[in-house]
Amino acid sequence: MEFRHLGRSGLIISEIAYGNWLTHGSQVEQETATACIRAALDAGITTFDTADVYAETRAETVLGQGLKGERRAGLELLTKVYFPAGPGRNDRGLSRKHIMESIDGSLRRLQTDYIDLYQAHRYDHSTPLEETMDAFADVVRSGKALYIGVSEWTAEQIRAAHALARELHIPLVSNQPQYSALWRVIEAEVVPASEELGLGQVVWSPIAQGVLTGKYLPGARLPASTRARDDKGGAASVARWLRNDVLERVQQLKPLAAEAGLSLAQLAVAWVLQNSNVSAAIIGASRPEQVTENVKAAGVKLDAGLLKRMDEILTPVAMFDPAITAEASPQTRP
């Protein structure tokens, strides 16, 4: 495993992180989840990402149980707040009330005294940013979180939050966006702003919801037991890529992966790690073997010629529009 600083902070994290969105507490239960967590630890992963909303809070519980007994100081635990974590009107968003109640719930479920990185899961248009950042400041000063991050915020929103964080003397150090060789919307605005301000990217879905593994073939039936056939497991997010023009181009990556001595999934994870503003790529798994395979992307250096050929193949079907990031945060709370 290789390790990187989280932005310009002093916190060092594993460049491949293990995340449990769509898996723990929903697709897989405790025994399999624990096996995946053990595989991640055995591979040298020290950074684990979750959120209170995943599997209706069960994902945090499963992760906390799976990490029980590990030396806390040797781990970096990341979780998030924003999406509904209960039925009430205030069980969502980034109000002071929800943040203060959510951090305590996450600590209890994760069986820990503090969170290394507490992240705003989306931008809350219904709450003044000053209220949100002031609440985060109190969370940090109380010792319940060490660093603050955001997820899927625009460059403008990141700049505004960073200015307030500086006034409040709290460390806003990261953004967690979707990023892959097919989904490149952060490159034009979010990455330059983050580099300027000292934030690192902790990216999710580096294999484009499984599409960049090459398992979806053009013109073929969708394989059984895959995310694309699971209405509760992200089928809608996969659907955008299940076009023949996309799938044909993904198949064209196979010779490049073979040239690099990698699987297609490993190539996809290695690709995002070539971006110097990426501090970590989050991988998920429903089987421990998937963890063991995908961590082989750690430390891989892809040569410029191969990267150029990947660009030539995927650019015609990749997403680049920076305006898409703003669409991730609804104008009203979910």
Automatic annotation (TrEMBL):
<comment type="similarity">
    <text>Belongs to the shaker potassium channel beta subunit family.</text>
</comment>
<keyword id="KW-0521">NADP</keyword>
<dbReference type="InterPro" id="IPR023210">
    <property type="entry name" value="NADP_OxRdtase_dom"/>
</dbReference>
<feature type="domain" description="NADP-dependent oxidoreductase">
    <location>
        <begin position="15"/>
        <end position="314"/>
    </location>
</feature>
<dbReference type="InterPro" id="IPR036812">
    <property type="entry name" value="NAD(P)_OxRdtase_dom_sf"/>
</dbReference>
<dbReference type="InterPro" id="IPR005399">
    <property type="entry name" value="K_chnl_volt-dep_bsu_KCNAB-rel"/>
</dbReference>
<keyword id="KW-0560">Oxidoreductase</keyword>
<dbReference type="Pfam" id="PF00248">
    <property type="entry name" value="Aldo_ket_red"/>
</dbReference>
<protein>
    <submittedName>
        <fullName>Aldo/keto reductase family protein</fullName>
    </submittedName>
</protein>
